[in-house]
Protein backbone atom coordinates (compact mmCIF):
# COMPACT_ATOMS: atom_id res chain seq x y z
CA UNK A 1 0.00 0.00 0.00
CA UNK A 2 1.50 3.33 -1.08
CA UNK A 3 2.04 6.31 1.17
CA UNK A 4 -0.56 8.29 -0.78
CA UNK A 5 -3.12 5.53 -0.27
CA UNK A 6 -2.43 5.48 3.46
CA UNK A 7 -2.71 9.26 3.70
CA UNK A 8 -5.94 9.25 1.68
CA UNK A 9 -7.42 6.55 3.93
CA UNK A 10 -6.46 8.50 7.05
CA UNK A 11 -7.88 11.72 5.60
CA UNK A 12 -11.11 9.90 4.69
CA UNK A 13 -11.43 8.51 8.22
CA UNK A 14 -10.74 11.98 9.64
CA UNK A 15 -13.40 13.54 7.41
CA UNK A 16 -15.92 10.94 8.55
CA UNK A 17 -15.10 11.66 12.19
CA UNK A 18 -15.58 15.39 11.56
CA UNK A 19 -18.95 14.73 9.89
CA UNK A 20 -20.08 12.59 12.83
CA UNK A 21 -19.05 15.31 15.29
CA UNK A 22 -20.82 17.95 13.18
CA UNK A 23 -24.09 16.02 13.15
CA UNK A 24 -23.94 15.34 16.88
CA UNK A 25 -23.25 19.01 17.65
CA UNK A 26 -26.17 20.19 15.50
CA UNK A 27 -29.53 20.95 17.11
CA UNK A 28 -31.34 17.62 17.05
CA UNK A 29 -34.62 19.18 15.83
CA UNK A 30 -33.04 21.24 13.02
CA UNK A 31 -33.22 18.62 10.31
CA UNK A 32 -32.13 21.07 7.62
CA UNK A 33 -28.90 21.78 9.49
CA UNK A 34 -28.27 18.06 10.00
CA UNK A 35 -28.55 17.42 6.25
CA UNK A 36 -26.87 20.77 5.43
CA UNK A 37 -29.79 22.03 3.36
CA UNK A 38 -30.80 25.69 3.25
CA UNK A 39 -34.60 25.77 2.76
CA UNK A 40 -34.48 29.52 2.11
CA UNK A 41 -32.59 28.97 -1.14
CA UNK A 42 -35.05 26.49 -2.62
CA UNK A 43 -37.36 27.61 -5.42
CA UNK A 44 -40.85 28.58 -4.32
CA UNK A 45 -42.67 27.08 -7.32
CA UNK A 46 -41.11 23.63 -7.01
CA UNK A 47 -40.06 23.89 -3.37
CA UNK A 48 -41.09 20.41 -2.24
CA UNK A 49 -39.78 18.61 -5.33
CA UNK A 50 -36.43 20.36 -5.00
CA UNK A 51 -36.39 19.66 -1.28
CA UNK A 52 -37.07 15.95 -1.85
CA UNK A 53 -34.17 15.73 -4.32
CA UNK A 54 -31.77 17.52 -2.01
CA UNK A 55 -32.77 15.37 0.96
CA UNK A 56 -32.25 12.22 -1.08
CA UNK A 57 -28.79 13.25 -2.33
CA UNK A 58 -27.61 14.59 1.01
CA UNK A 59 -28.82 11.56 2.95
CA UNK A 60 -27.12 9.12 0.60
CA UNK A 61 -23.85 11.04 0.69
CA UNK A 62 -23.78 11.45 4.45
CA UNK A 63 -24.77 7.85 5.09
CA UNK A 64 -21.40 6.82 3.66
CA UNK A 65 -19.70 8.87 6.38
CA UNK A 66 -21.77 7.95 9.42
CA UNK A 67 -23.31 4.52 8.85
CA UNK A 68 -22.19 2.23 11.71
CA UNK A 69 -21.47 -0.57 9.23
CA UNK A 70 -19.10 1.64 7.25
CA UNK A 71 -17.16 3.45 9.98
CA UNK A 72 -15.56 2.36 13.24
CA UNK A 73 -16.29 5.56 15.17
CA UNK A 74 -18.22 4.55 18.35
CA UNK A 75 -20.37 7.68 18.01
CA UNK A 76 -21.52 6.70 14.51
CA UNK A 77 -24.78 4.98 15.63
CA UNK A 78 -25.96 8.10 17.44
CA UNK A 79 -25.13 10.33 14.48
CA UNK A 80 -26.82 7.93 12.08
CA UNK A 81 -30.02 7.97 14.16
CA UNK A 82 -30.14 11.78 13.90
CA UNK A 83 -29.51 11.55 10.17
CA UNK A 84 -32.31 9.00 9.70
CA UNK A 85 -34.74 11.12 11.70
CA UNK A 86 -33.90 14.19 9.60
CA UNK A 87 -34.47 12.26 6.37
CA UNK A 88 -37.74 10.80 7.69
CA UNK A 89 -39.21 14.17 8.66
CA UNK A 90 -38.09 16.15 5.61
CA UNK A 91 -39.25 13.42 3.22
CA UNK A 92 -42.70 13.16 4.82
CA UNK A 93 -45.66 14.02 2.62
CA UNK A 94 -49.45 14.18 2.97
CA UNK A 95 -49.70 12.67 -0.50
CA UNK A 96 -48.42 9.32 0.72
CA UNK A 97 -51.31 6.93 0.02
CA UNK A 98 -49.41 3.67 0.44
CA UNK A 99 -51.14 2.99 3.74
CA UNK A 100 -54.73 3.56 4.77
CA UNK A 101 -54.15 2.63 8.39
CA UNK A 102 -55.21 5.35 10.82
CA UNK A 103 -52.06 4.92 12.91
CA UNK A 104 -49.81 5.33 9.87
CA UNK A 105 -51.79 8.34 8.67
CA UNK A 106 -51.58 9.96 12.09
CA UNK A 107 -47.82 9.40 12.21
CA UNK A 108 -47.38 10.82 8.71
CA UNK A 109 -49.45 13.87 9.63
CA UNK A 110 -47.29 14.41 12.70
CA UNK A 111 -44.11 14.23 10.61
CA UNK A 112 -45.51 16.64 8.00
CA UNK A 113 -46.55 19.09 10.73
CA UNK A 114 -43.06 18.92 12.20
CA UNK A 115 -41.52 19.63 8.79
CA UNK A 116 -43.88 22.52 8.04
CA UNK A 117 -43.27 24.01 11.47
CA UNK A 118 -39.50 23.89 10.89
CA UNK A 119 -39.88 25.59 7.50
CA UNK A 120 -41.99 28.32 9.12
CA UNK A 121 -39.37 28.82 11.85
CA UNK A 122 -36.66 29.24 9.22
CA UNK A 123 -38.72 31.90 7.45
CA UNK A 124 -39.45 33.72 10.71
CA UNK A 125 -35.77 33.61 11.72
CA UNK A 126 -34.71 34.94 8.32
CA UNK A 127 -37.21 37.82 8.54
CA UNK A 128 -36.19 38.62 12.12
CA UNK A 129 -32.50 38.87 11.24
CA UNK A 130 -33.32 40.66 7.97
CA UNK A 131 -34.98 43.49 9.90
CA UNK A 132 -31.71 44.11 11.75
CA UNK A 133 -29.15 43.76 8.97
CA UNK A 134 -29.00 43.85 5.18
CA UNK A 135 -27.01 40.63 4.77
CA UNK A 136 -28.34 37.48 6.40
CA UNK A 137 -25.99 34.53 6.77
CA UNK A 138 -27.07 30.90 6.99
CA UNK A 139 -25.08 30.53 10.21
CA UNK A 140 -27.05 33.35 11.84
CA UNK A 141 -30.35 31.87 10.72
CA UNK A 142 -29.47 28.38 11.94
CA UNK A 143 -28.32 29.78 15.28
CA UNK A 144 -31.62 31.61 15.77
CA UNK A 145 -33.59 28.56 14.60
CA UNK A 146 -31.81 26.42 17.21
CA UNK A 147 -32.68 28.94 19.94
CA UNK A 148 -36.34 29.01 18.87
CA UNK A 149 -36.54 25.22 18.79
CA UNK A 150 -34.94 24.89 22.22
CA UNK A 151 -37.25 27.57 23.63
CA UNK A 152 -40.28 25.76 22.21
CA UNK A 153 -39.06 22.53 23.78
CA UNK A 154 -38.69 24.22 27.17
CA UNK A 155 -42.20 25.63 26.85
CA UNK A 156 -43.54 22.20 25.92
CA UNK A 157 -41.74 20.62 28.87
CA UNK A 158 -43.12 23.26 31.25
CA UNK A 159 -46.62 22.67 29.90
CA UNK A 160 -46.14 18.92 30.11
CA UNK A 161 -44.91 19.17 33.70
CA UNK A 162 -47.93 21.33 34.56
CA UNK A 163 -50.26 18.79 32.96
CA UNK A 164 -48.50 15.99 34.84
CA UNK A 165 -48.94 17.86 38.13
CA UNK A 166 -52.60 18.46 37.30
CA UNK A 167 -53.03 14.79 36.47
CA UNK A 168 -51.26 13.77 39.68
CA UNK A 169 -53.54 16.05 41.70
CA UNK A 170 -56.57 14.63 39.91
CA UNK A 171 -55.44 11.07 40.63
CA UNK A 172 -54.87 12.01 44.27
CA UNK A 173 -58.40 13.40 44.54
CA UNK A 174 -59.85 10.31 42.85
CA UNK A 175 -57.91 8.09 45.24
CA UNK A 176 -59.32 10.10 48.16
CA UNK A 177 -62.87 9.72 46.82
CA UNK A 178 -62.37 5.97 46.33
CA UNK A 179 -61.03 5.66 49.86
CA UNK A 180 -64.02 7.55 51.26
CA UNK A 181 -66.40 5.35 49.28
CA UNK A 182 -64.67 2.20 50.50
CA UNK A 183 -64.87 3.45 54.09
CA UNK A 184 -68.56 4.28 53.67
CA UNK A 185 -69.19 0.86 52.15
CA UNK A 186 -67.40 -0.84 55.04
CA UNK A 187 -69.42 1.15 57.57
CA UNK A 188 -72.67 0.26 55.79
CA UNK A 189 -71.61 -3.36 55.66
CA UNK A 190 -70.72 -3.34 59.36
CA UNK A 191 -74.04 -1.66 60.14
CA UNK A 192 -75.86 -4.42 58.27
CA UNK A 193 -73.72 -7.13 59.89
CA UNK A 194 -74.51 -5.73 63.36
CA UNK A 195 -78.24 -5.59 62.65
CA UNK A 196 -79.00 -8.89 64.41
CA UNK A 197 -77.02 -7.76 67.44
CA UNK A 198 -78.91 -4.47 67.57
CA UNK A 199 -82.26 -6.25 67.25
CA UNK A 200 -81.32 -8.69 70.02
CA UNK A 201 -80.16 -5.85 72.27
CA UNK A 202 -83.37 -3.95 71.61
CA UNK A 203 -85.46 -7.01 72.41
CA UNK A 204 -83.50 -7.64 75.59
CA UNK A 205 -83.94 -4.02 76.59
CA UNK A 206 -87.66 -4.06 75.74
CA UNK A 207 -88.09 -7.28 77.69
CA UNK A 208 -86.41 -5.81 80.76
CA UNK A 209 -88.54 -2.67 80.56
CA UNK A 210 -91.69 -4.75 80.16
CA UNK A 211 -90.78 -6.93 83.13
CA UNK A 212 -90.06 -3.86 85.18
CA UNK A 213 -93.44 -2.36 84.28
CA UNK A 214 -95.22 -5.58 85.20
CA UNK A 215 -93.36 -5.74 88.50
CA UNK A 216 -94.33 -2.17 89.36
CA UNK A 217 -97.96 -2.81 88.37
CA UNK A 218 -98.09 -5.97 90.49
CA UNK A 219 -96.71 -4.10 93.50
CA UNK A 220 -99.47 -1.49 93.20
CA UNK A 221 -102.16 -4.19 93.07
CA UNK A 222 -100.84 -5.85 96.24
CA UNK A 223 -100.85 -2.52 97.97
TrEMBL record:
Q: Name one Pfam family in it.
A: DnaJ
Instruction: List the transmembrane segments.
Output: none
Domain J, by residue range, is 30-95
Gene3D superfamilies the record matches: DnaJ domain
Q: Per its UniProt record, what InterPro entries does this chain match?
A: DnaJ_domain, J_dom_sf
User: Which PROSITE patterns is this protein grouped with?
Assistant: DNAJ_2 (PS50076)
For this protein, the record's PANTHER family field holds:
J DOMAIN-CONTAINING PROTEIN SPF31 (PTHR46620:SF1)
Write down what this protein is called.
J domain-containing protein
Its taxonomic path starts at: Eukaryota, Fungi, Dikarya, Ascomycota, Saccharomycotina
Amino acid sequence: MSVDSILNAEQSALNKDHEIDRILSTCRWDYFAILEIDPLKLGQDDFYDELANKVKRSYRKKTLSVHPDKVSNPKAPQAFEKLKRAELVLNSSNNNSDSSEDVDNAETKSLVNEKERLIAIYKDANETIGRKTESVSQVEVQSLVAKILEEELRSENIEKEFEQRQEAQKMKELAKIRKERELKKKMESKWEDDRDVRVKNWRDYSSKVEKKKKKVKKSKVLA
